[in-house]
Amino acid sequence: MCVIEPPVDNAGFQQGKLVRRGKIPKGDSGRFYHWKDLNVGIDISIYGVVYHTVECDTFTEEYLRSQGIDPGDREQPPPDSYTQDRIAKLAVSKASSSSLRKSRPQEDPRRRFLEFDGMVLTFDATWNEDFYQIMYFLTDDTIAVKEMLRPNSGKDPNRMLLKKTKIPKNWTDLPVWYPSIYLERSDEEVVEYYCPMDLKVGETIFIFGRSFFLFDCDSFTRRYYHNMLGIEQPPRIYPSTSSYPPCHVSPHPKHCAPLSEKPKKEDVIRKIFNHPKKLRYLMSMLAVRPEDEGREFILEYSLSHGTIKINELGRKNSGRRAGCFLASMEIPKSHAKLENCDEEVPIYYTPRDFYIGAKINIFSHRFVITGADLFVMKYIEANQDKFPAELIQNMREYFNKSSVEDSKRAEDITEDDKVNILRHKEDDCLIPARKETESPPNAQKIISSLPEPQNLETNLCGKHERDRNTPKQITWADQVQVPCTLMSNI
C-alpha cells in the first residue's frame, strides 16, 4: 500500500506521496492490511494517522463486486473553506480583468507607429526638490523619466531615472493569488495604465511609489491636448523650491511642426551639383581685448552642405597658431517664432549675408568681412537672381578697386626688372637675375694686388700672365682668381 495526496497550488505544506509502497501493519496484532480490509466509508489507521475513505474508482468497484463484496455508498468530502475562498477571489479578479480587456480598443501597433512616430508629450516635474522631464510616447503608450541636472549638482551623468515602460496607475493593486515575489506584472494583472488624460499641469502622479508634481509642459503638448483631446493645459506653475529650472525648450524642433509633417530630407541634388564649390571670404575680428587686434580669418561657405568653416591666418609673434578656428557646421544667424508656437526656429547664414563690410556674429564672436575670393564674384555674376542688387554692386566695387590697385603696382616695376626676372623652377619663386660683370648698386669696391711670387718657376695661364703685374678691381659679386702656380705648389 501507498498513500498519495493530490497536490494543491500554494497549499503551504508537504504534498504528494505521504507513505511509500510497502506492507503496512494493522494495529498491534502483527498482521498487515489486506485488500479485503478496504471499503468505502471506513476509517483506516496508518502509522498513527487515521484516513477516512469516501470514494473508489470504477475498477476497484467492479473488482470488489466480482469478489462478493458490496462497496459502500459514495460520500462527499468535507469542504475546505480556505480553498473555496481562494477560488471565489480568483473568479472575481479574472472577471474584472476580462471585462477591462474587452473595453480596451485593440489597435494595430503598426498603424500607431505610422501615425504617432516621433510625437512625445513632454512635462516638467519635480520630486524631492529635483527636476525631471516626464516623456509620454504616443506610439506605444510608454513613459520615460529623465532628470534635469543642474550645474555643479555633484550627481552622476546618468540622467535617465526610468526607461520607456508602461506605468500602472496603482502598481500595488494586484490579485491575491499573484506571486509578486518572483514574477513580473503583465497586462492581465494590471487593471489600468497611465494615459494622456491622466497627465495635466498642476496635478501629481505616482510612478512606482514616487510622487511627481507636473508644473509645465512644452508647446507641442499644449497643442496636442487642445486639438486632439479638447483640453486646455494650465499655464506654468513655479514650484516652491530654492532654485527654479529653466523654461522648457524642446530638444526636437519637429515638435513645433504640424502633426502630419515628416522629418526634413537631405537635398541630394544640391550636394551633387555644388559638391566642390566653396565661397571664401577674408575677415578680421572686432577686437574686444587688446590681444585680439589684427587677427584675420578665412571663412569658407560650402555650397553643397550650407556649412561654414573658419580658419585663422598665422601671424608672427602673436602667440597663436594658424589653423582651424571653427569646424564645419551650420551657424544660426537669428531665431524666428513659428505661427501658433512659442518655440523659436533658427535661421542660418547664407551667401546673401556676406558682403564687404558686413558684420557677422558667430557664437558671440563678431567679425567684419574685408575681402573675398575671385570665385565669389564669378558665382554671384552667374546667379544674380539669388542675390540682391546692393550686394552685387558692393562686390563689383570691391573687385574694381582691387584691380586698379594691382595695375598701379605693376606700373611701378621698371622695364629692366621685367626683363631680368627669371622663374626658378627648383625654388618655385621669382628672383631678379644680374649679369656676372654687373655689381650691385651699393656694393663696396675692393682694390686687390697680387704680389709676384719670388724664386718660383711660374707657368701661368694666358689670362693670369696679362694681369700678373696690374692691380685688379673686384667687387663682392666677383670671385678672386688664384694663380695656377700657387695651385700646383699646393
Explain this structure to me?
It is a single chain. The protein is of the alpha+beta class. It is about 20% helix and about 25% strand. The chain contains ten helices and 22 strands. A six-stranded antiparallel sheet has the order 8-7-6-5-10-9, covered by helices on one side. A six-stranded antiparallel sheet has the order 14-13-12-11-18-17. A hairpin with a 2-residue loop joins strand 5 and strand 6 (about 130-135). Helix 6 (about 375-380) runs antiparallel to helix 7 (about 390-410). It is rod-shaped, with a radius of gyration of 50 Å. Residues about 245-260, about 420-460 and about 480-490 have low confidence and may be disordered.
> Given the structure, what is the number of helices?
10
Uncertain regions spanning at least 5 consecutive residues? 246-261, 422-460, 479-490
* Widest beta sheet: strand line-up: 8-7-6-5-10-9
By helix and strand content, what is the structural category? alpha+beta
Q: Mean of the pLDDT scores?
A: 77
Largest sheet: 6 strands, antiparallel
The strand count comes to: 22
Structural shape: rod-shaped
- Give the DSSP E fraction (strand runs of 2 or more residues): 15-25%
- Radius of gyration, Cα only, in angstroms? 50 Å
Percent helix, as a range, is 10-25%
Span of the ends, CA to CA: 135 Å
